[in-house]
Amino acid sequence: MAERLIELRDISKSYGQVYALGGVNLSVDRGEVVGLIGDNGAGKSTLIKILSGVVKPTSGEILIRSQPVTGWSAARSRDAGIETVFQDRALAVQQTIVRNIFMGRELTGFLGWLKVNKEIEEARRLMREIGFTSKVFTPQSIVGQLSGGERQGVAIARAIYKQADLIILDEPTTALSLTETAKVFHFVRQVRASGRSILFIGHNIHHVFDIADRFVVLDRGKVALTADRSQVKSAEDLINFMEDVAHPGGLPGLHDAGDAEHRAR
Amino acid sequence: MEPDLHEPSAGISGPGNSRKEWKHPSDNWMRGFILANRAALGTLAVFIVMMAVFMTANPTVFTTWYLYSSVLTTLPVALFVVVPLVFVVTCGEIDLSFPATMGFASWVFALVVQAGYDPFLGIAAAIATGTLLGFLVGSLVVYGGLSSLIATLGMNFLLRGLIQIINEGKSTALTSLADSWAYKIFSSQLYGIPVQIFWAIGFVVLSALLYNRHRFGAQVKVVGDNPDSAQQMGIDVKRVRVKVFVFVGIGAAIAGTFSVMINFTWWPTAGDGYLLPVLASVFVGGTPTWGGVGTVVGGAIGAVTVSFIQTGVVAAGLSGFYVQFFNGLIIILSLLGHKWNQARYR
């Protein structure tokens, strides 16, 4: 069995009287892509914030490589090799790819002078590692000239440079076209092939279904479903399941429509 | 052959997939150089066109060395503040307090020299004063959370007011300077060329390296481009912002000291006349107002351009009344040129 990278046990988070998360169990193994699906307000962003250490859980246990940790914080999260690539991509778009990858961690020598050639070499290596290569751009291209999917590639390369074992991708394909989404998937597969793990968060079920090895459906602060790829036949299965979760007993109108479709087939 | 994201066959290697080595256009050093320095080169083009116009109007005047000599004496003073201002504007801020810092730091220089100490000590004291004032202004803007446009404008009035209150408008003559070593090194002539320009060129070159090849410049650009991202990546955004104001303080102190050494006299208004020409130089030089990008060399060429406008207009045989008109014309034309020349990425 693959090494267990991180495990959350019975994690709860409440803001005053309001529960954002109520007893969530989630684990990510090495070299695995976990798809986290959930509607707006399901608790996805709270979960990301807990994983990246920005927010502390009200109760519950966090295990890193099967070891329980105390005093969970952003620094601890980083030390554990967890990097979050946020939805807004957090890139400086007027700068080069190199400058973005080494942002805040410039490779410097004597008195803080940049090792320009070493940075370019290192950037090229990182980009090659995630399959982010093209003859249209070089490491010294301006990020603003890249497409949305390619910008995700810059962010992922940066996370890899930080020795991340688990990369959390927060809605990486939202607002991307089909070809751009395919590029992001290409990067994700390369990252998985390198033995790293990815937590792929999205609300487009088709996207998550295409890329993930395991699915976790979050609903109103609780894990509603954990399923392996082999247990789910199609994206429609997931969608049906989520509809059931969202409307237990069924919204008459919706289900009638669905039944009518089935009968028609 | 590496897989290519823009090819349908990305990552699939097979026979017939090996084409001849393809090179990126910017791999050509000439093309790469032009692309990387388009703003500075645009500014240079503006300068050359402007000088060509002046020279055709009156070719003989422009062969006299005196004309260049006078520009080369005052230009360095401007360069010492234009260059740090490029850093400030790149960082997404503005500093309008540098004229008062010039006056204040050079006042300290004048006081030290007048008290009979060596001018080198005076220069050290002036730079220390400039550093301190830059830190003060920067902290006020950054930690006080104030708009740099208004806060530095206020500091400019405040510091100048202090100078005026204490000196009651009186100037200080520093005749002893003429015999000092400091004067020979920083303000005399070398083969007929004002020596200040060599110091200023050294300063520009060092700053350009700092801007393009040093962690400081890299972080200034990132902070000006996307402060949230910089913060997330562990850059101390506030510290970087304060540092650029300190840099202006140091530059202003050197500029103020140089201007005093040219005239052997310190005036309570020292530095006042530099506010608008220096700001114009930064933007004529091709540094945009929105932060994240800029050019030190362009800013320096911008300063040369602005310095030559006044001299050029008069030398070309027009009356002094045309100076302001040409100032405005050059600024507007440069801005239009830069807008066409460089795209803004979002």
TrEMBL record, chain A:
Residues covered by the ABC transporter domain: 6-245
Keywords of the record: ATP-binding, Nucleotide-binding
Keyword ATP-binding found: yes
Entries under Gene3D superfamilies matching the protein: P-loop containing nucleotide triphosphate hydrolases
MF-aspect GO terms: ATP binding; ATP hydrolysis activity
CDD domains reported for this sequence: ABC_Carb_Monos_I
Protein name per UniProt: Monosaccharide ABC transporter ATP-binding protein (CUT2 family)
Automatic annotation (TrEMBL), chain B:
Classification of source organism: Bacteria, Pseudomonadati, Pseudomonadota, Alphaproteobacteria, Hyphomicrobiales
Transmembrane segments: 39-59, 65-89, 96-117, 186-211, 244-267, 313-336
Region listing for Disordered, in residue ranges: 1-23
Cellular compartments per GO CC: plasma membrane
PANTHER family xrefs: ABC TRANSPORTER PERMEASE PROTEIN YPHD-RELATED-RELATED, INNER MEMBRANE ABC TRANSPORTER PERMEASE PROTEIN YJFF
Major localization class: membrane
Entries under InterPro entries matching the protein: ABC_transp_permease (IPR001851)
Pfam families, per database record: BPD_transp_2
Membrane topology: Multi-pass membrane protein
Species the sequence originates in: Mesorhizobium tianshanense
This protein's name: Monosaccharide ABC transporter membrane protein (CUT2 family)
Keyword Transferase attached: no
Record keywords: Cell membrane, Membrane, Transmembrane, Transmembrane helix
Molecular function per GO: transmembrane transporter activity
Entries under CDD domains matching the protein: TM_PBP1_transp_AraH_like (cd06579)
Subcellular compartments: Cell membrane
